[in-house]
Amino acid sequence: MARGIFAPGLHINLSPVDSGNVLIGSRLQEGRQYLDTEADILFARYGTEPQEWTLVGSVGSYAPKDTTVPDFNFFNPDGAVDRGKFADSINGLMKHLGGMGFIDLPQHPGFSLIPFAVYRTIPRSSSIVALRE
Hints:
alpha+beta, 2 domains, 4-stranded mixed sheet, elongated
């Protein structure tokens, strides 16, 4: 099911410390040598539990508050399709699906980041690892 909802590439969900319900999403595209391996192998290496990672990037888009289903009335009085209204309807549908969490769009109050680099904290000694477990 997850493979059907998420587009190809590695999805990183970030939460600022004590943020509550803010989720920052970023997708590392396949073939771009970000963490150069398959997602299944990354899960085996790093696990799926929350960890300290740092992502450097640019804000992609902010999630809109209003994600209501759009009006699909995109026909002109003569019955022809108004291409501008049709495009607005499709974009509105995508915004609605994103607000529900079904496609790769941020959910309010979150936003998306376009990644430049991803860094992971590596413990310096085994005693630190034992303390974190």
